[in-house]
Amino acid sequence: MSDKPVIHVIDDDEAVRDSLSFMLETADFVVRAYDSAISFLDRLPDVEPGCVITDVRMPEMSGLELVRRLTALGVTLPVIVITGHGDVPLAVEAMKAGVIDFIEKPFDDEAILTALGVALSHDAGADGKDAERMAFAQRVAALSTRERQVLGGLVAGHANKVIANQLGISPRTVEVYRANVMTKMQASSLSELVRMALLVGIDR
After folding, report:
1. All structural domains of the chain
2. Residue 124 DSSP label
3. Scanning 98, 157, 161, 196, which has its CA 20 to 30 A from the CA of 124?
């Protein structure tokens, strides 16, 4: 058994699984690969500490279902989900279920490595969490009413067009508000923005 954190890669697509495993091993991680959520769960008693990277859409059991199963079993491994562009609402739902981050395809190596750094250091103490929550709450307070509405739509997993329709504005205007929200919240990605919002209690 390795004394390094082990990255558990779960994807039914062999090409994605192999390329992701190769990249992580090149970055000096220990990797275990699984072709389904079921095969990972079958190995649970012997699974080493570390982090799980799973595709969100898989046959038999989705990444979201896996997260819920792990939570029910009391397994505390941090989870990162990989999602196609159309699966962002599903990924947002996964974050509400406890996922650390989600990464949209196609992704670059740096995005995965950055997310892993966050996931593996996620055991920060409660004091750090409280300070983080306070900082995020102050940023939310600086948003305009419309920006707050757009943030709520994003956290609900809605596409720009849906948010535009709900607010009676154009999708292009939603894009402008979305960019403003990202800047004011100091978020580098949609997943980071959603994580911030959930931490301060914005869930819709």
Report:
1. 6-120 (3.40.50.2300), 126-199 (1.10.10.10)
2. -
3. 157
Write down the residue that tokens 């067009």 correspond to.
161
Q: For residue 64, give the amino acid letter.
A: L
pLDDT tens for residues 143-164? Answer: 999 999 999 999 888 888 999 9
What's this model's pTM, rounded to 2 decimal places? Answer: 0.78
CB atoms within 10 A of CB 136: 22
8-state DSSP, 79? E
Look up tokens 């769960």; give the residue.
41
- 37-71 in b/e burial notation, b at 16+ Cβ within 10 A? beebbeeeeebbebbbbbbbbbeebbbbebbebbe
Tokens 């292009």, residue?
172
Distance in angstroms (rounded) separating the CA atoms of residues 40 and 51:
12
Strands (E), the chain: 6-10, 30-34, 50-55, 79-83, 101-104
What pLDDT, in 10s, does the model give residues 88-138?
777 778 888 888 888 888 888 888 998 898 888 865 444 556 777 888 899
DSSP 3-state helix, strand, coil percentages of the chain (rounded to 5)?
A: 55, 10, 30
Q: Is the dihedral of CA 36, 41, 42, 47 positive or negative?
A: positive
